[in-house]
Design brief:
Layout: H1 2-7, E1 10-11, H2 12-19, H3 23-35, E2 39-46, E3 49-56, E4 62-68, E5 72-79, E6 84-91, H4 98-115, E7 123-130, H5 155-163, E8 167-171, H6 172-183, E9 192-197, E10 201-207, E11 210-212, H7 243-246, H8 248-259, H9 264-272, H10 276-300, E12 304-308, H11 310-314, H12 316-329, E13 339-342, H13 349-359, H14 363-369
């Protein structure tokens, strides 16, 4: 079950290789679990030969993934075979509040179940990726100013009350790292640094093949590393945090003389369509971020740095600028250095990570892990 859940679907031959069990043993177990309604088998073809593909049965349930950012909300339903069944996104107003946004989340989840013709009883768990550092013990935003209007809301319990299902919460960069490690560019490595370039800057860590959240669950707050002790005030209360130079407000300040009153979404769209000025602003921000990332690379020595977020995927030059900055500013290594690559899951990494977080909490997962 762990092998099928991890890879989404395998033939019986592939299952034997993944588990180390004999083909006969795999065949017997698959028959038993299919009869119990936990697995499904379908005929497929591998190398021109017929084979039996094994997946987790749809009736084993569905999970929901939620990504709540500063300016947008996305909700998705997924089955336990790593397939996204349905999803929907909504823009959010500036300084959206927790109560109204969580109401929208609950309504979207219900709407998606109706869309796919499923009952809410099939919902096993909900994973939430929140664009703010979250206290591990309470589920409350741990840094004031990180997501205005959310400071005193225990997101998990509030959403559990609305949906009547277990809710599991983490920061979006941590879940972006989780998704890229399980499904994306970070699959080949055990030590991964995920850098999220978005309205704010943050990071997620996978060390020794496991998520590293820190002692209080707030590891990876890259945007709050101080880079200028005399710099402007950050919403967190400190001066000169990285986000005061590469966050949303700073980026808009750079383009305002040329473009007037625009949003960061406008800047991203212009960069994607080839606007050189907007692309330059994003590239400069990535280069400055790379200087801070270089310090983490020197201290943690990850095998790979994966870059995600809207800014990274708006312009390919942003990833290259961050890569060169890391190489220039980290400890020179005679034989190897951490590679820096764009995430392969695009801007959906955090949402997919939320789905994986929910899947990890299902009864199936608990039965596997004990």
């Amino acid at each position: 079950m762990a092998a099928v859940k991890r890879f989404g679907g395998l033939t019986q031959v592939e299952l034997a290789a993944a588990t180390g069990l004999s083909a006969a043993t795999v065949s017997t177990i698959v028959k038993e679990l299919a009869a119990a309604g936990v697995l499904e088998t379908t005929t497929t073809s591998r190398s021109g030969r017929r084979a039996l593909r094994v997946t987790i049965a749809r009736q084993a349930g569905l999970v929901a993934g939620v990504h709540i950012g500063p300016r947008g909300l996305t909700v998705a339903l997924g089955d336990l075979a790593h397939e996204v069944v349905a999803d929907q996104s909504l823009p959010l107003p500036v300084d959206h509040r927790a109560d109204t946004t969580l109401d929208r989340v609950a309504l979207l989840v219900v709407d998606l179940f109706e869309k796919v013709g499923a009952s809410l009883d099939e919902l096993q768990a909900v994973g939430v990726a929140l664009a703010a550092p979250v206290d591990a013990a309470t589920g409350i935003v741990a840094v004031r100013g990180a997501l205005p209007g959310w400071e005193d809301t225990a997101v998990g319990p509030v959403l559990e009350k609305r949906l009547g299902k277990p809710v599991h919460l983490d920061t979006d960069a941590t879940l972006g790292a989780f998704a890229e490690h399980l499904l994306g560019a970070g699959r080949p490595v055990r030590d991964l640094l995920y850098v999220r370039l978005s309205y704010a800057t943050s990071a997620g860590l996978v060390l020794g093949g496991r998520l590293h959240r820190g002692g209080t669950g707030t590891a990876g707050q890259l945007g709050h590393v101080r880079v200028d002790p005399t710099g402007p005030l950050c919403p967190c209360g400190n001066r000169g945090c990285l986000d005061t130079e590469v966050g949303e407000a700073a980026l808009l300040e750079h383009v305002r003389p040329a473009l007037g009153d625009v949003t960061l979404r406008d800047v991203i769209r212009r960069a994607r369509t080839g606007d050189p000025g907007c692309a330059r602003v994003l590239t400069d921000a990535a280069r400055r971020t790379g200087e801070v990332v270089a310090g983490l690379v020197t201290v943690l020595d990850p095998q790979l740095v994966v870059v995600g977020g809207e800014l990274a995927h708006a312009d390919a030059g942003a990833v290259e600028a961050l890569r060169e900055s890391v190489r220039r500013n980290s400890l020179p290594h005679r034989f190897a250095t951490a590679d820096v690559v764009a995430g392969s899951l695009g801007t959906r990494a955090e949402l997919l990570g939320a789905l994986e977080l929910a899947r990890a909490q299902t009864d199936v997962a608990e039965g596997v892990t004990g």
